[in-house]
Each structure stands twice: as C-alpha cells, then as structure tokens.
Amino acid sequence: MKKFLSNVFKFISLAVGLYLILLVASQQLLPPAYVKNITYVPGGNGHLYTRLNEADTTKNIDVLILGSSHAYRGYDTRKFRLNGLRAFNLGSSSQTPIQTELLFNEYIDQFNPQLVIFDIYPVLLGSDGVESTIDILSNQTLNIKTASLALGSRNIKVYNAFLLDMLFEGLGKETTEPELKPNGDKYVAGGYIETSQDHVKKERKQRTKRYIVDRKQLEAVTNIVASLKKRNIPYMLIQAPVRNDVYSAVTNNSEMDSILQKFGTYYNFNKRIFLSDHEFLDASHLNQRGVDIFNKHVLSIVAEKLGSAISNDQKATSILKVTSHSTE
C-alpha cells in the first residue's frame, strides 16, 4: 500500500511539474491565438498594475470610484482635484460586482472615503467575471482572497492564470508598466486613464438585446451597499452613458433601472444627459470631450452630497433633462 501511494505521489508530482513547464513555455513562446486558455497579462490593458501600486500608498480620500472600464475611462480624477476633491478610481477592465467587492474590502478602510461612486455597467451583471479575475491575478500580489476567487471560478483560464501567478511571484519576477502605452492610453494619478484617441468607426446597426442578471452579482452589490451603510459612508450608483444607438437597442432598460434603484441613490445618465456620437470613443466608452461633459454633471451631484463648493463653470448646465431617474 505504501509503495502504491508513493508511486501515485510521484506520478502526480511529475504530471504537475510537466504541466507547469508546458504552461510557462506556451505562455511565453506561443501567440495568444494558439493558447486561448492561457491568459496572463501583468501590466496589461487598463493600467491595473500601476493603479493598484498607487492604491497601496493612498489613504484618506474624498471620493472613491468603483466599477469597470466605464469607471477608469469615465471619471477624470483631475476634474475632481480641480474642485478640491481627492478622488481615487479603483476601476478595472470588465470588473463585475464580485471583483468590485474583493477590491472594495481590501481598500475601503485605508481609503476612508467621504463618498463612494459605484459605476454599474448592466452588461457585467450577467458576466462570469473571468476577464476581470485574470486581470486582478495578473496585476495584484497574490493573497488568500484572490486565491479563493480564482479557485472558486471553475474556469480553466483562471486556473492557468492562478498557477502562472504563483510561479512567477515565487520566482520574484518583476512587472513594469509604462505611463503611456502604444495605443495612446495614459495613466493619470488617481487611477484615471486618458486616451489620445478620438473615436472609432461606428459599427453596423445594433441588434436588440436584453440585460441578463446573475444572482451572485446582485449579492455582491448588496454586500457592498450593506458595508457602506454599516460604515455610514454616503454612496450613489451611476449608470454611465453609452452611445445612443447602443442604449436604445436594449429592451429592458426600465427593468434594470428598477433593480438598481432598490439599492439606494441611483442615476441613469443615459436619461439625464444627451451626448452625440462624437463624444464617444466607441460604443460604450466616452472620449475626453464626453468625459468633460459627463463629469460636470457628476461633480454637481457630488457637490450636493458633500456640500463642496464646485465652481460655477463646473456645474451642470441646461443639458440636464427635466426628467430625473434618480432615487434619493
């Protein structure tokens, strides 16, 4: 029996060793198209590595911004700073509420914000969060919570990223990330990403679609809101604007509004402001012109919440529609 168990152990050790060698070799040597189940992106899209490094040394802020790329591309921390507010943008690519909860729990006490803006992109309420989990594994130092998130994913791509992360961190591999990337994305202090691109070519006519909601994602939103209430931190949920044809193609926007309004103060900016296609980088992200307009309105609301003195030229103007879809 002992010999049998010894042979089993040797076989498993050999198999794991060979798998790790093949995993690293494939990730390092083969084009991504040939290794679709192997994704490990330290310093990848979204500047998350730089953002988390800055987050580690940031304390006592005024405004914390949570969410996906809609967050880190949509809320310019420089605009907040011009109005005397220290903001930090903790967004990451395709971040679902489950990943938001992980990052929120890690940094909320350290940040000690006076207000939290939780940007919710409804598409991600139905996401499995694989892309965002891999992004976090690739750019954050591994800990028990990220390991638990990875192991609970039941996804081979996440498992592979987890193994690569353990191996590379164990070997002490360093990650570097330029402030300005070849695609024109520039990291701005506080977590915002400025892009030099104006807008991309519009796609064909949008097909109608419905938002799908995963129960686990709503549970994560519930947990975050409950934690904010427990800490007596004011918050607001925001649905950032997407291009008009994209928003109009969704058949259950009202249903989504009803769901999100139940969590507290909620603003759907697709119904509060009108932006032309020229204010968008792509179908769902604003370019800098769009960000400037959007942030004027956001800062006006933030001023009311915090009692801050926002300068007149920063206040929202007549572009605001009379019909408000917020709950107080």
Written description of the protein model:
This protein has helices at 2-29, 48-55, 69-72, 77-82, 97-111, 130-139, 144-151, 156-170, 215-230, 244-248, 253-261, 288-306; strands at 63-66, 87-89, 115-119, 185-188, 192-195, 235-239, 266-268, 326-327. By secondary structure, the chain is an alpha/beta fold. Strand 4 (185-188) and strand 5 form a beta hairpin. The radius of gyration is 21 Å and the shape is globular. The N and C termini lie far apart (68 Å).
List the defining traits of the structure above.
globular; 328 residues; 8 strands; alpha/beta; disordered C terminus; 12 helices; 9% strand; six-stranded mixed sheet; Rossmann fold; two-stranded antiparallel ribbon; 2 domains
